[in-house]
Design goal:
The protein is α+β, with helices and mostly antiparallel strands. Helices cover 42% and strands 22% of the residues. Among the domains are: 187 residues, Sandwich (Immunoglobulin-like); 133 residues, Neutral Protease, domain 2; 85 residues, Aminopeptidase N, middle-beta domain (Immunoglobulin-like), CATH 2.60.40; 130 residues, Zincin-like fold (Alpha Horseshoe), CATH 1.25.50.10. It binds (3S)-3,7-diaminoheptanoic acid and zinc ion. Its EC number is 3.4.11.2.
Length: 860
């Protein structure tokens, strides 16, 4: 497959002011007639040929201005010869949605028909200039069987409908806003809506609908309320008002991603729509709210202003992730949400940035764009814009985004356009800052300090590690919020410093004797801080820092230092004991601190994840040993639980007594399951009976799932009984059965691989449904113990899944590759086994573009 380069961008030779589409819907043969009004683009090199992208399409007929056309195929694309300045091109294609297992283009899901076009799915529906810089106004007519497809939806507004009287009916839709083809959507199915109008700030009434199958209607209120909250928030915080009279959301059960922001017609994975306390956890509720918000915010950051080309993906995704994170921070509390987002960044993006698939947030080349919907483009992209916001402050940032929305409304823009709008609107020079768009790799900052009189001299040295294709890096501007506290208890004031050269010393005022530096407060920059603060200083910060984020960071730092030392086997017996004692003391303090609420307490009781420890252990020339990390982490959990047995059981009892609808209930449920997990590490029998009791008493999914999670890792009789009860209770609910698969795939049970193999044979398992594949196999690939089993059986199983899935759904198959791609930073025994699996995949031949690109890059 060819490599596509950002520097090769050229505008398209033709404009397509209007597009008419006519669909005769049938599950196995849908007839599509597309009429494109085209005219020469004066801004592009003239060409007598119009290249229309196709993917697995054949043209039934092609006419130009009503007469047979001169056309030919060039690989998958259709090339039409056009003599004049302006023409009308009509093309007929016939597609088979029921055979579409890739879930790109028009496909069948659970009896309905729906579309997914981003990035290049529209070309599987009809021949079209399927690139985001070709904006067109769409008029769509669809016709189909009335019983099978009583509801017919498309982008924009419904302008006409009718019944043919022969069992078929039709509808016509018009979207007044010009859009790229990737935002096209159509849905036909037997759906019901939960509706509630929203009145915009200027007084316009918007009909909001959440469309689902009838049996799911009772679980749609949270999604609908989340939509209303998002609409209001975007008006207040970014000054963005909705621009159609209708906002439709449809839930489908077969979906490659979370959701899709199609103009006026979002298509969602059911997982991010359906929620009630009996079937969804508190985390699921948060995820629904976050994804609903994300897709809604795209209406401005993505749809009104779209991307010039796919290299600019972070323009819409990074910005929209930042917007949804800010929204959720406002809805649910700033610190806890920030801690969660940083945890995700470290678990997903840092490893990506340190591995063979590392790429800048604005990539320079790709073979398959689907492989670039990454944590780097999304989450690091959000961090980069968050840094701009931290540097200029809220008010000036808003002036910058106002200018951006105003200046580029209706355009297909670039990341450069965004940066320039922030520069002009906020009045800031982001010249050097642009390096964040072009350089990959997580910067590392070495910290040293010296006291001189009443000043602390803080010396920071930055290095940006080499990444594939980028051996040498330049220093980047790194904004860091810092405060210099005193061990006497006096807290220093927070200030923002910007490290913009390789090495720099900052003079900071002392708050008192024995300074302790709190750095990167609130995680102002997506970097790794390298320092060796004493255990006492970290314990001090964990207990006293006035920034709750910094408190949790101090505890993480304490845990990482100890666990990496333990995994490397470099701790003396005394260091081992002292490290454990410090962490135990910090946990004891968190459990006892009456000033903390449980939501924050819960964050403080989370030990660094194995993935994060893997990153911390594999630094410089050192390699990670997943086996040693697992043993060290489980050992620490056991030590904590042995020392704090009474406190943990008391915390479990206290939190168990807080009722479901108490405002403190969410935090309590989090703490309850965390302490149960700790107890299990030291005292499986007690944990098993507490977990069984928690399961039996639970009146909500959070408590039930938490209990079952703990039971799943234990070899106890309570395990089987509760798993069976859970299955029996929820066997008709696909999303909950996904949880049942996931809990077993993620467990630390000694037989986890055998369990996963058996589950893959379960009648409810199907490799054709992405949620199910993710619930079993993707979960397993993220199980640090099972996946990294020393004999390579876990690697083999994941490689087998990639090979089996690739011909069916390449996008989802390729998403398994990064787990194996981490081999270079892992101890030699496992590395060889992982590499051998990648080579086996590559040797099998006939791979999709998606999987080929990821596997070959992982072996380079
Ligand atoms: N924009 C979509 C992603 C679609 C990816 C298709 N390969 C979802 C989102 O980020 O909102
Ligand atoms: Zn998005």
């Amino acid at each position: 497959p060819p490599v596509i380069r950002r520097e090769d961008y050229a505008p398209f030779a033709w404009a397509v002011p209007t597009t008419r589409l006519d669909f005769r819907l049938a599950p196995d043969a849908t007839r599509v007639t597309a009429t494109l009004d085209v005219e020469r683009n004066p801004a592009a090199d003239p060409s007598p040929e119009l290249r229309l992208n196709g993917d697995s399409l054949t043209a039934e007929s092609v006419t130009v201005d009503g007469a047979p056309a001169t056309w030919r195929m060039d690989g998958p694309d259709l090339i039409v010869t056009l003599p004049g300045e302006r023409h009308s091109v009509e093309i007929v294609t016939i597609i088979d949605p029921s055979a579409n297992t890739q879930l790109m283009g028009l496909y069948a899901s659970n009896g309905m028909l729906c579309t997914q076009c981003e990035s290049e799915g529209f070309r599987r529906i009809t021949f079209f200039p399927d690139r985001p810089d070709v904006l067109s106004t769409y008029a769509v007519r669809m016709e189909g069987d009335k019983a099978a497809f009583p509801i017919l939806l498309c982008n924009g507004n419904r302008v006409a409908e009718g019944d043919n009287g022969d069992g078929t009916h039709w509808a016509e839709w018009h979207d007044p806003w010009p859009k790229p083809s990737y935002l096209f959507a159509l849905v036909a199915g037997d759906l019901v809506a939960n509706s509630k109008p929203f009145t915009t700030v200027s007084g316009r009434k918007v009909e909001c609908n959440v469309w689902v199958r009838a049996e799911d209607l009772a679980r749609t209120d949270h999604a609908l309320e989340s939509l209303h909250r998002s609409m209001k928030w975007d008006e207040e915080v970014f000054g963005r008002e909705y621009d159609l009279d209708l906002y439709n959301i449809v839930a489908v059960s077969d979906f490659n991603m979370g959701a899709m922001e199609n103009k006026g017609l979002n298509v969602f994975n059911t997982k991010y729509v359906l929620a009630d306390p009996d079937t969804a956890t508190d985390a699921d509720f948060d995820a629904v709210e976050g994804v609903i918000a994300h897709e809604y915010f795209h209406n401005w950051s993505g749809n009104r202003i779209t991307c010039r080309d796919w290299f600019q993906l972070s323009l819409k995704e990074g910005f929209t992730v930042l917007r949804d994170q800010m929204f959720s921070q406002d809805m649910r509390g700033e610190a806890v949400k920030r801690i969660e987002d940083v945890r995700i960044l470290r678990a997903a993006q840092f490893p990506e940035d340190a591995g063979p698939l590392a790429h800048p947030i604005r990539p320079d080349s790709y073979r398959e764009i689907s492989n670039f919907y990454t944590a780097t483009v999304y989450n690091k992209g959000a961090e980069v814009i968050r840094m701009m916001r931290s540097m200029v402050g809220e008010t000036r940032f808003r002036a910058g985004t106002d200018l951006y929305f105003d200046r580029h409304d209706g355009e297909a823009a670039t990341c450069e356009d965004f940066v320039r709008a922030i520069e002009d609107g906020a009045g800031v020079d982001l010249g050097q800052f642009r390096l964040w768009y072009s350089q990959a790799g997580t910067p590392r900052i070495a910290v040293s300090q010296m006291v001189e009189g009443d000043t602390l001299k803080l010396t920071l040295k930055q290095t940006v590690p080499a990444t594939p294709g980028q051996p040498d890096k330049q220093p980047m501007p790194i904004p860091l919020k810092v405060a210099v506290h005193s061990r006497s208890g006096a807290l220093g004031a927070e200030q923002l410093i910007v490290l913009d050269s390789a090495e720099q010393t900052f003079d900071l005022p002392l708050a008192g004797p024995d300074p302790v530096v709190s750095i990167n407060r609130g995680f102002t920059a997506p970097v790794v801080i390298e320092r060796s603060l004493s255990r006492e200083d970290l314990v001090f910060l964990a207990a006293h820092d006035d920034d709750p984020f910094a408190r949790s960071e101090a505890l993480q730092e304490l845990g990482v230092a100890h666990l990496v030392g333990a995994a490397r086997g470099t701790l003396s017996a005394e260091e081992q004991a002292d490290g454990e004692a410090a962490i135990i003391a910090a946990f004891r303090a968190s459990l006892a601190d009456a000033a903390l609420d449980d939501a924050m307490r819960g964050e403080l009781l989370v030990l660094p994840s194995e993935t994060y420890l893997f990153e911390a252990m594999a630094t410089g020339t050192q390699l990670a040993d997943p086996g040693a990390i697992h043993t060290a982490r489980e050992g620490l959990k056991a030590a904590i639980a042995t020392a704090l047995a009474g406190e943990l059981q008391a915390a479990h009892a206290r939190t168990s007594a807080i009722p479901l609808d108490d405002p403190a209930g969410r935090g309590a449920r989090k703490v309850k399951t965390l302490v149960l997990g700790l107890i299990a590490a030291a005292d499986p029998a007690t944990a098993a009976s507490l977990a069984a009791a928690q399961y039996d008493a639970a009146d909500n999914m959070t408590g039930r799932q938490g209990a079952l999670m703990v039971l799943c890792s234990l070899d106890v009789p309570e395990r089987e009984a509760r798993l069976a009860a859970f299955y029996e209770r929820y066997k008709d609910n696909a999303l909950v059965i996904d949880k049942w698969f996931t809990l077993q795939a993620l467990s630390f049970h000694p037989d986890v691989i055998a369990h996963v193999r058996k589950l893959a044979e379960h009648p409810d398992f199907t490799i054709r449904n992405p949620n199910r594949v993710r619930s079993l196999h993707m979960a397993f690939a993220g199980n640090p113990k099972g996946f990294h089993k020393a004999d390579g059986e876990g690697y083999r199983m994941v490689a087998d899944v990639i090979l089996a899935l690739d011909p069916i759904n390449p996008q989802t198959a390729a998403r398994f590759v990064p787990a194996l791609g981490r081999w270079r930073r892992i101890e030699p025994g496992r590395a060889a086994l992982m590499k051998a699996e990648l080579e086996r995949i590559l040797a099998s031949g006939n791979l999709s573009r998606d999987t080929f690109e990821q596997v070959s890059r992982s072996l380079e």
